[in-house]
Design goal:
mainly alpha, 0% strand
């Protein structure tokens, strides 16, 4: 009989995610077609990048998953989700990341991700009780900051699309961003990762500042950029670097 596990049974030490576990995210066929790519994967990405001290393995797994959702890279997504679960990301956090990224990466990408990882959840015995509530008690709203943000958006875009302005306030900032299944730092983290993966650095200033307000350090943000270069490509990361530099500078002045 298959053993049904609770969410806490998936949480292992980040140190347990070794290079051999990461190798499951790379198909064996890669070595048959591009042996140099296999070597870079094993000798640089898996051995060094994933084990950098500036960013936890758990956070690396989460931002990698966010990038994959954004790019609709479902082929190896099950292996990456299994890796994330073993690194300490909970099924609830995976589920909530998909819901969150539907708003930032598009409904189709989120639906594709849910479909791709459903077998992993089934295999690991994830039950409805392990997933976020549909209508939870929301986190406390910073009313002053939200009022200022909404006033600026209304003034700038109200005559362009009132529907976008209203939905941004009512669905995103008065609801989605206050859901407790992702810590505010993690919600900001996956948003910034999605913006980098989508090649939308012009949207990063607000969200990277918010991420750092929510506890992301400059060192961690820099490590995230270095990590995502491998999963989104160097050009997307170099497009994001000037924005990050401006944010870092503004916060030290």
């Amino acid at each position: 009989m298959k053993t049904i596990l609770t969410a806490t049974a998936f949480v292992l030490s980040a140190a347990s995610v070794a290079a051999q576990d990461l190798s499951t995210t790379l198909p064996d066929t890669v070595g048959q077609v591009a042996p140099a790519l296999e070597a870079y994967s094993e000798n640089a990405l898996f051995s060094d990048v994933w084990h950098g001290d500036a960013f936890s393995t758990r956070d690396r797994a989460l931002v990698t998953f966010a990038a994959m959702v954004t790019r609709q890279e479902t082929g190896r997504m099950p292996e990456h989700v299994a890796l994330a679960l073993d690194a300490g990301v909970t099924p609830s956090e995976i589920s909530e990341t998909i819901t969150h990224l539907a708003f930032y990466s598009g409904w189709g990408n989120a639906v594709a991700a849910a479909e791709a990882i459903a077998p992993v959840f089934a295999e690991r015995g994830v039950a409805a009780a392990d997933l976020p509530a549909v209508d939870p008690e929301l986190l406390t709203l910073n009313e002053e900051a939200e009022a200022a943000r909404q006033e600026n958006v209304q003034r700038t875009y109200g005559n362009v699309s009132q529907g976008v302005v209203d939905n941004t306030e009512e669905l995103l900032f008065l609801d989605l961003w206050l859901r407790p299944a992702l810590e505010p730092r993690d919600r900001s983290l996956v948003t910034v990762a999605a913006l980098i993966a989508a090649g939308q650095p012009e949207q990063m200033t607000f969200h990277l500042n918010r991420a750092m307000d929510n506890g992301l350090t400059q060192e961690e943000a820099g490590a995230m950029l270095a990590h995502l270069a491998f999963y989104t490509g160097w050009p997307r990361v170099f497009s994001a670097m000037p924005v990050a530099a401006e944010v870092f500078e503004s916060r030290t002045n």
